[in-house]
Specification:
Blueprint: E1 2-7, H1 8-15, H2 20-28, E2 33-36, E3 40-45, H3 55-65, E4 76-77, E5 84-87, E6 97-104, H4 110-125, E7 134-140, E8 148-153, E9 159-160, E10 169-170, H5 171-177, H6 179-184, E11 194-198, E12 204-207, E13 211-212, E14 226-232, H7 235-251, E15 255-257, E16 259-263, E17 266-270, E18 276-280, H8 282-289, H9 295-303, E19 308-311, E20 315-319, H10 329-340, H11 360-374, E21 378-379, E22 385-386, H12 388-391, E23 416-417, H13 422-431, E24 439-450, E25 458-469, H14 475-489, E26 494-497, E27 503-513, E28 516-524, H15 526-531, E29 538-544
Helix pairs in contact: 3-7, 8-10
Length: 550
């Protein structure tokens, strides 16, 4: 969770005096006040609302919530001459996408520059996963000659003076000598080519996701016009991040201009601030919330959350282009609930009598977790959604079509439900290949499978995966871990020789409980380790934890 710290006097000029009543309303909006002094106010911003990570974004939202401001429509001017960015094919394997914009008529002062740097860094840390998913660059347009090219070169061929550094050095030296280079070196160190933005004068603007150039990438009080780029891997994420920044600059008084992006996949204009249209049912809203709201009441409540409404034979919510958190109809219900006020809901006692009891599988999961933690293992928790590459191909599974459970219209690159935990366990080890060894991890979580008898056609069950990664990890070590777990649970089992594409042939076994298959264990195949850049041997087991109840 990020904390947004604002100047109290500046905030009060916009939203009014912060009384205990207003402080409570800020909290009910979903942004609880962390600290309040005479000079500053610190507000907790949940990860699903990166658009609130600036003075402009927060005041825009809270003024609407308080009914003091209507939904704002943002205007984009057409590209002027040379407002173009070309994405060279050389960058496709390193950092393949970028979205860009130009904002003019800005009047920067120290406070506004601080605001821009602050939102940039907070977006890097939260929405950008510490620059891994996306990196943002803001440049004084006066120091740049358009058009711009986004390309990649060998690090030894890239030389420029990085921001706040005394001299010119090459890209490889930046990773070892510059503070930002050392901090984010892991994002580029294994790449043969490094990405850079250059202008028409062949001047380097930046080397994302590391650092801007000192010559062309430093905003000052004299800056009136800026060029903004967001680079990364998922174009949808980049567009949202750019929209968050340019709308904040527009709220500062700036004027947004679009740019033409020339990619091998086609040309498009950036940014796009058109709202996303999401159909919803008023009956669903009322049933979900237990209310009896009319269409007019819902329109008013949505406007308080900066969401417009239109009716074209069905109710449609117009989601602002900078919102990242509204993915489904149920999210609109949550917006209405926040706007309506949770304090206004009347609690009801259910007309049934029950005796509460903890689910048996929950008791077992907690017991298994305590046993494994007691042996020195660390518990992990990963996402239910994955990709074909991560879930199957990276762990050697080629015939996966029968297991594939694909998500229709997924909002992210993760578009399939996981069918096992082994792939996520391998991915965690891969992402921590530079951490100290031994690495011993486990996860207890849901996996999914086709189930025609279920209403959703999808079944789910609890699974346990244990992975041991160290220079001596082998079949014996994972078998000893299994022995200890089963002995502590007082469960008898046996193992039989088996084959699995993720494991070494001859060092893989099938776990049997009550003469029924319950899991697989063994030593991970070397090509799986190579695919995932894991430097040590790995032995793993995945088992159906629900079978332990039998």
């Amino acid at each position: 969770m990020a904390v947004l710290t604002l100047n109290r006097k500046e905030l009060e000029k916009v939203i009014g005096k912060i009384t205990p009543e207003l402080e409570n309303k800020i909290g009910m909006f979903g942004t609880p006040v962390d600290k309040l002094t005479d000079e500053e106010i610190s507000i907790e911003i949940f990860p699903n609302r990166p658009d609130l990570l600036s003075f402009q974004g927060f005041t825009r939202a809270i003024l609407s919530f308080l009914g003091k401001k209507s939904v704002k429509e943002y205007k984009i001017e057409k590209p002027e001459k040379d407002y173009k960015v070309t994405i060279d094919k050389s960058v496709k394997k390193v950092r393949p996408h970028t979205t860009c914009a130009i904002v003019k008529n800005l009047k920067f002062d120290d406070e506004k520059i601080k605001n821009i740097i602050d939102i940039q860094e907070k977006l890097h840390l939260t929405y950008g996963r510490n620059r891994k998913k996306l990196a943002i660059g803001v440049y004084p347009l006066e120091e740049i000659k358009l058009p711009i090219t986004f390309l990649a070169k060998k690090p030894e061929d890239i030389r420029f003076q990085p921001l706040e550094f005394p001299r010119e050095i090459n890209a490889r030296q930046i990773l070892s000598q510059h503070p930002a280079g050392r901090e984010y070196a892991n994002l580029l160190k294994d790449e043969e080519l490094f990405p850079i933005f250059i202008d028409a004068n062949n001047e380097i603007l930046s080397m994302p996701p590391i650092i801007n150039s000192h010559k062309t990438g430093k905003i000052t009080n004299k800056t009136k016009e800026v060029f903004i780029e967001v680079s990364g891997f998922n174009l949808g994420y980049l567009k949202k991040a750019l929209n968050i920044i340019v709308t904040a600059l527009d709220d500062m008084g700036g004027k947004i201009y679009s740019m033409e992006i020339n990619d091998k996949e086609g040309k498009y204009l950036s940014p796009n601030l058109e709202p996303e249209k999401m159909p919803f049912s008023i009956d669903f809203m009322n049933k979900t919330l237990g209310l009896k709201l009319t269409e007019k009441e819902i329109i008013k409540l949505l406007e308080k959350m900066n969401i417009s409404y239109e009716n074209k034979n069905q109710s449609i919510a117009l989601i602002p282009s900078y919102r990242t958190d509204i993915l489904h109809e149920i999210d609109i219900a949550e917006e209405i609930a926040i706007s309506y006020g949770y304090e206004n809901f009347i609690p009801e006692i259910p007309q049934i009598s029950t005796i509460g009891e903890e689910d048996k599988i929950s008791i077992l999961k907690r017991k298994v977790s305590e046993i494994l933690i007691g042996t020195g293992l660390s518990e992990i928790s990963t996402y239910h959604l994955s990709t074909k590459e991560k879930q199957f191909k990276n762990i050697g599974i080629k015939d996966f079509k029968t297991e594939l459970i694909e998500i229709i219209d997924s909002k992210t690159e993760n578009n399939i439900l996981r069918t096992s935990l082994l792939a996520q366990s391998i991915e965690v080890l891969s992402n921590n290949s530079d951490a100290t060894y031994p690495q011993k991890i486990f996860e207890i979580g849901k996996i999914f499978y086709d189930n025609e008898e279920n209403e959703t056609k999808i079944g789910e069950k609890e699974s346990l995966c244990i992975s041991l990664c160290n220079e001596k990890a082998n079949f014996t070590e994972i078998k000893q871990t299994l022995d200890y777990l089963m002995r502590m649970l007082d469960i008898e089992y046996e193992i039989k020789e088996a084959e699995h594409p993720s494991f070494i042939t001859g060092r893989c076994a099938k776990l049997m409980i009550n003469n029924k298959p319950a899991g697989i264990l063994g030593e991970i195949n070397p090509f799986v380790l190579k695919n995932n850049k894991i430097k040590m041997p790995v032995s793993s087991i995945e088992m159906d934890i629900e079978m332990l109840l039998a």
